[in-house]
Design a protein that fits this description.
- The structure is a single chain.
- The chain is an alpha/beta fold and 670 residues long.
- The protein has 2 domains: 384 residues, Up-down Bundle (Na+/H+ antiporter like fold); 253 residues, Rossmann fold.
- Helices cover 62% and strands 9% of the residues.
- It is built from 25 helices and 10 strands.
- Strand 9, helix 25 and strand 10 form a beta-alpha-beta unit.
Length: 670
Amino acid sequence: MKDIFSLPFSEPVVIFTLVLLLILAAPVVFRRLRIPDVVGLILAGVAVGPFGFNLLQRDDSFRIFGQVGILYLMFLAAVEIDMYHFKKYLRDGILFGILSFGVPSVIGIAAVYFAFDAGLTTCLLLAVMFSSHTLISYPVVSKFGLQNSKGAVLAVCGTVVAVLLSLLTLAAVVEMQVSGKPDPMHLVLILVRTLIYAVAVGVMFPKITRFVFRKLSGAVEQYIFILAMVFVGALLARLIGLEAILGAFFVGLVLNRLIPGRSALMHHIKFVGNAIFIPYFLIGVGMLINVRVVFSSWQVAWVALVMIVVAVSSKWLAAWIAQKTMRLSLFDRRMMFGLTSGKAAATVAATMIGYEYGIINEDIMNGAVLMILACCLVASVATEHNAIRMRIDLTAMEMEQTGVENPEFARQIVAVSNPITAEGLMRLAVFMRSPKNTEPVTALFVRDSDDRRRLTSGRYSLRVAAQAAQEMGVEVVEEERFDLNVVSGLTNMIRQTEASDIVIGFHRRSNIVDSFFGAMTDTLLRNTLKMVILSRCFIPISTIRRIVVVAGKNAQYETGFHDWVARIGNLAQQLACKAIFLASSETSRYIEDVIVSDGYGIRRIYQEMTDWDDFILLSGEVGVEDLLVIVEARKGSISYSSELEQMPEFLSKNFAGQNLMVIYPEQFNG
């Protein structure tokens, strides 16, 4: 018993228990002092570490979990970015990355040369410490839902550029120290390897992931697979001479479109990372810091002061220059400064390598450790303070645009009866609704008999659909209804819930003419004028690569035009896939107006379709990983034409194996 509780603790159960208590208690305690959670965890690490009360040693568990935590942090930063915004701001992000590397490097070299009278290699190594940074305060941005703000996207993109340039400089410094002169061919070789790595991972990882996702539907299996892919990518990066954090970030980018923001998989990724790995990493960072060294000699205090001032001021200056040259807002500048002023992984690596090769002395190493602490504090406080004000302003702006405090949102009914298709239907419905929608979705099973087999299947379908909605963070109401027939049950529930649209599936082995456009569908369309969406997907909805939307002439004049475009906009945005609209030029203009006015950040192209014959010619371009969406029309509606009568037969003949959705927009007085 005495050995178990002897200091520092070495018993694994005691160590893990203490870490869990720190993860739980530190944010609560420091929040009362108005100190951000990130800072609280770092300070907790300082307190329990070898330079504090010596409760814990920074053993292999902290090194392993710490490495996992930083890789997880970089992966999460990449996978949470909306790829539309990432590509939109990519050029500015690269420019900011160059600024975030160049400005601290130039100022750092000058400051170190004059303040410490250091040589060239020491000046260059410290320039690496000043210019590199870690997204240590990114959890704050994610918590407030600001990961797609321009400042955050530029900071994340700039981080990759700055870290890559810093690591190349570090390699050159080590080469100079070992051989006495830089080797340009060594740097060229690293760049070539990096290019080969990017192409290989960018092509192979998405293909492998799509294949595995079609075979593995379990949440645990998919999570373990994604985690394995992150570490394979990080390991490959290490093998070519790059830091593992760059590999983890790049894997996040290439798998971004396969992990939708509202998916259960994303929920698991964020939950595990924020609960265990990232806090473990932050506590480990704190355990590296020895605050006492600042009082050991005036030289250490002077070195630390110079390094802190240079590191913080140069990152602020880089963000200020970026704001002025790119015409960014004050919030964006503060966001960029907060995210890029934190230091951990690359800076620690540069410090350890520099001390190992004799490039820096012990005073500079101690000063670097104190700089890391100060920069982490500044980054966390600045990011959280700005994020709170930014979220308040954005929320006020959104409320002003909607005109009401609680705007009306779509009320959806998802009709299920088959356990095989119930989950896919519910996920499709959730992806088609606005992320701001707070209305519950209704999972409905209608029966018109007491058939035991059908009753068991239907009730199980309800549970499957409800679980899928709950995993995606959406409130769900389960309804089992006995009625004269299925259509009567559906229409009565539409009236009861005042639903805006209903999502229905069909058995994938049924004949498309009989089950999709047969008597039941015709009766339903006659009994309700609300939007009706019929769907069939052979692959997981998250693996859809393109959405091909076919809209007939005069589709823009239907009452429900805006609503169905909004559904497609939400679906394409949350799946991060491209939308291809086949429509007349006039209809395409109206579609574009809705997408722009509602702010859907999606990749989209328009192709001219003068009549339905054009769609028949283009139908061969629809692949097995695409979702074909047909915007149909009820008989007698504005956009109805006699050509639509041949659509069931055409779809049955040519698209029997494709993912398909048919939308009947809402009609007047629906």
